[in-house]
Amino acid sequence: MMRSALGTAPDFPLAETHSALQRSSRVVFTRAGKGRKSTLHDIEEHYRHSFELSPHIPWTAAADGLILDVGPQWLSLVGMPRQDALGAGWIQALHPDDVAPTTERWSHSLQTGSPVDVEYRLRLVNGNYRWFRARAAARRDEQGCILRWYGTVEDIQERKLAEEALRESSAFAGSILNNSPDCIKVLDLDGRLLFMNEPGLQIMEISDFPLLHGRCWEELWPASAVPLVRQALQEAAAGRTGHFSASCPTARGTPKWWDVLVSPIRGPDGQLLRILAVSRDVTRTKQVQQEAEQARRETQAAAQRFEAVLESTTDSVILLDQDWCITYVNQHAARLLRQRGLSLGANLWEAFPEEVGGIFDRHYRRAMAEQLPVVFEAYLSSPGLWLAVHAYPTTEGGLSLFFRDITEQRQAEQERWRAQERIAHMARHDALTDLPNRTLFRERLELALSSVPPGTQVAVLCLDLDGLKAVNDTLGHPAGDDLLRQVAARLQTCIRGSDTVARLGGDEFAIVQTRLTEAEDAADLAQRILDALAEPVELAGQPVLISTSIGIALAPGDGLEGDGLLKAADLALYRAKAEGRNTLRFFEKGMDEPLQARQALKMELRRGLIQGEFELVYQPLMDLHENKVAAFEALLRWRHPGRGLISPAEFIPIAEDTGLIVPMGEWVLHEACREAAKWPGPVGVAVNLSPVQFRKQGLVDTVAAALAASGLAPHRLELEITESVLLQNSDANLAELHALRAVGVRIAMDDFGTGYSSLGYLRSFPFDKIKIDRSFVSDLPDDPQSTAIIRAVMALGRNLGITTLAEGVESARQLAALRTEGCDMVQGYFFGEPMAAGDVEQMLQQSPRI
Ligand SMILES: Nc1nc2c(ncn2[C@@H]2O[C@@H]3COP(=O)(O)O[C@H]4[C@@H](O)[C@H](n5cnc6c(=O)[nH]c(N)nc65)O[C@@H]4COP(=O)(O)O[C@H]3[C@H]2O)c(=O)[nH]1
Fold this sequence. Notes:
Elements: H1 14-32, H2 37-53, E1 57-62, E2 67-70, H3 73-78, H4 82-85, H5 96-112, E3 116-123, E4 129-140, E5 146-155, H6 157-179, E6 183-187, E7 193-196, H7 198-203, H8 209-212, H9 226-237, E8 242-247, E9 257-266, E10 272-281, H10 283-312, E11 316-320, E12 326-329, H11 331-336, H12 348-351, H13 359-370, E13 374-380, E14 385-393, E15 399-405, H14 407-428, H15 438-450, E16 457-466, H16 468-475, H17 477-494, E17 500-505, E18 508-516, H18 519-534, E19 537-539, E20 542-544, E21 547-555, H19 562-578, E22 584-586, H20 593-610, E23 614-623, E24 628-640, E25 644-646, H21 648-658, H22 661-676, E26 684-688, H23 691-695, H24 699-710, E27 717-721, H25 724-727, H26 730-743, E28 746-752, H27 758-764, E29 769-772, H28 774-777, H29 784-800, E30 803-806, H30 812-821, E31 825-826, E32 835-836, H31 837-846
Parallel strand pairs: 21-22, 24-26, 26-27, 27-28, 28-29, 29-30, 30-31
Antiparallel strand pairs: 1-2, 1-5, 3-4, 4-5, 6-7, 6-10, 8-9, 9-10, 11-12, 11-15, 13-14, 14-15, 16-18, 16-21, 17-18, 19-20, 23-24, 23-31, 23-32, 24-25
Helix pairs in contact: 1-2, 16-17, 17-18, 20-21, 22-24, 24-26
Bound molecules: ligand C2E.
The site of ligand C2E has 24 residues, from strand 24, helix 21, helix 22 and strand 28.
Domain PAS: 43-113, 302-337
Protein name: EAL domain-containing protein
Domain EAL: 598-848
C-alpha cells in the first residue's frame, strides 16, 4: 500500500466489505429464497474466516488509491493501528528503498487501471523488514469507471529469501563457470551438448555455441580419442567419474591436449539428470612434458653416447662432482681399481685415504682451483700402479679423470734407463775395478781444469803398478784381477770425495786431485798411496808385495790442458820408474824432451821416406852344416841428413805408430828381393815383417808383387815375424801366414824365447825356422842355464823339423858351443856386421867359410 498522491486515504472499512459481501450473498439468498437464509450466513462466516484467517492481508482502496480498509492482520504484523495505515498511512511502514518504486508502480496502476502487483519490504513490529507482495485489481461500474480497488498483501519473505539464495547461488555458479579456466560442458544422458561455459567457448575457439547445441559430444573428438570419450561417458552414466587425456584441435584447428573429467549430475532425489564434462587445457603442460621427455630422451641418449664413448675408450675414466663424490666409473677403471671396490656416490678421498695430501690430491685440487686441465704421472701405492692421469675440470665444478696404467711402460722405461745407465756407466768405468776409465777421467780432469779457483792447483798423478805381470804369470789372471781390485780399493781410501781415481788400462792408474793449496798436497797424497800399496796384498791366500811408481803434474804450473798434463804426469812417472821403483816424481821442464824428439822424428820419418833416405844393410846368416853364407838378413837404416844413420830400434816403433811401416815395409820387400835377385842362386834373403803390416790388407799381394818384380824365387825369401804377430788378431794373422806360405816363401820366428808363449806358437804354425834371441847366446858357453835353454830349443827344432838359428854370435866360443848343441845356423858380428848391398856381392864372391 502506498500514500496516494490524491491526499488522505479514505476509510476502508472491513465492515463495508463485509456488508458488500452480505449484499452479494443476499442476492444469492434472494435467488435461493428464504430457505436458504442459514446458508448465506455460512457463506458470510466463511468469508469472514477467509479474511481473518487468510495469511493474506486484504485491503481496499478508493478509485484514487487511498486505502479504505485493511485486514486485521496488519496491526499484528506491522504494529501500525488500522487507522494509521488508511489513506496513505501505510507508506510509513515501507522500507525507505522501496517507497519510490512502490508508489511509482501504484500510481501507474491508478492512472491506467491496470492491476497492481508490487513487492516491497514492510517494517514489522520487531523493527525488522520483511518482504511482501501487494496485488490489487480494480472494480468498475457499468461504464467502466473504477469504483474501488481490492487487494491483498502477501508475505513473500520466504520466497524472496529463496529467490535471493537462488540468485546468489546462480551468480556463484555463474562466476565459477565463467571464471573457470576449464571448458565446462553439460551433456544430456545421451551425451549431447547442452551447455558450455564462456571460457570453454573461448578456449575451444567456438564463436557460435547454438550450432553445437545438441551435437553429440564424442563427434567433436578425433577418431583416436573417441574410445576414450565413450569410456568416460559410460563411467559417468554408471555414476562414477571418468577421466581421460587426449588431443583434440579447437574449432579453428589449434592443436590442444585436454585432460577431461566426466562426472554425473544428479537430481535432488539422486536420479541421474545430466553429465558434466570438464576439460582442462593441458597443452602447455603436455608440451612441457613432451619437451621434458624429449630433453630427457636426448639427455639419456647423450649420456648413453657419452657412456658408450667412455666405455669404448681404452682409458679408465672416473667422474667426480664438486664434492669429490664419484658419479661415474667406467669398466676399465672398475677393473683396474677393483681392489678398491669403487662405488658410485662414494667420496674419492674416503676410497683412497692414503692419497690425501699426496701427489694425486695436489694435482686434482690444482685442476679444480685453476679450472685448468692437469696432466701428470704418479704411482698409486695400492694396488701398486703407475698411472698417466689427465684431469679435466667439468662445468659442474667436478673433475673428469682419464687415466691409463703405464706400469709396464714405466717398468720398461726404468729397465731401459737402468740399462742405459749401466751402458753409460760401463762406457765411463772400468769393468774390473768399477773405477772411472780413461774417458771419465778425462772428463773429470777437464772439468777440474775448467775452473781452478785462484790460489789452488789441480794435480794429475799417474801410477804404474809393478808386479801385475808377475802375479798374472805366477798366480794366474784371476789373481791379477783381484790385485787390481784391491789396489783400486786402497787408492780410493787415499783420496777425498772431490778427487777422482781412475784405471786407465793394464796396470796404469791416474788420479785427479783438486783444490791443492801447495804442491806438497800432491806429494802427501802420493806418499799415502805408496804407503797404502806397500802393505802386502793377499792373493790366492798368499801375501804378495807390490810397489808402484807415481808421476805428478800440476795445473796451472805445468799447463792447463788435460792431455798435456796427463803426458807430463806420464813423463814424470817414467822418470820415477827409471830412478827406482816405489817412488814419486814431479814433472819438471825438460822431461818431455825425448817425447818431443820422438814427435819431431815422427814428422821427419814421412819426409825421409818420400826423399829416399832409407837404405838396407845385410847381415849374413851362416849355415853351420855347410859352413858358408846361406842368406842375408835385410836390416833397415835411415840415413838422416842431420843425424846420420838412425837405428831401426829408434824409428821402427814410430813407423808402426804412424802406420808408415806399411809403405816402408813394402819398400823393404821390393828392395831386398831386387837386391837378392842379383845374388847367386841358393843365397836367400830374410826380411822383417811388423805386426802392423799384417793388420793391413794386401800383405800377400805385396810379397807376391815384390817377388814378381824382382824375379826372385819365392823359396829364397824368408819372412821374419815375432810372436806378437800371433798375439794379436791371431786367427786372421795365421790365415795370412798360411797364405804367405802358399806363395812359397819361408817363415821364421824371430826373437824366439823373449815372448811369453813362444813354444805355444810353434804349435799353431809350422815355422821354417826359429831364431833364438841373442840374450840366450850372449852368456854362452859359461852360463849353464843359457846352455840348457839353447840345448832344449835345439832339440825342439830337431824334433819338429825346424831350422834353428842363433842370433848375436860375437865370439868363437859362442859359435863352438852352438855347434856343439847342434844349432843349424848362426848370425852375429862374429861373421860380420850388417853391410851395404855392394859389400854383400863382394863377400859372396869371396865365399867365406867358417
Ligand atoms: N849386439 C849385437 N847385435 C847384433 C849382432 N848381430 C846382429 N845384431 C843386431 O841384431 C838385430 C837383428 O835384427 P832383429 O832381431 O830382426 O831386430 C831388428 C828388427 O826387429 C828391426 N828391423 C830392422 N830392420 C827392419 C825392417 O826392415 N823391418 C822391420 N819391420 N823391422 C826391422 O830392428 C831390429 C834391430 O835391428 P838392428 O839395429 O839392425 O839390429 C840387428 C842387428 O844389427 C851381434 O852379434 N851383437
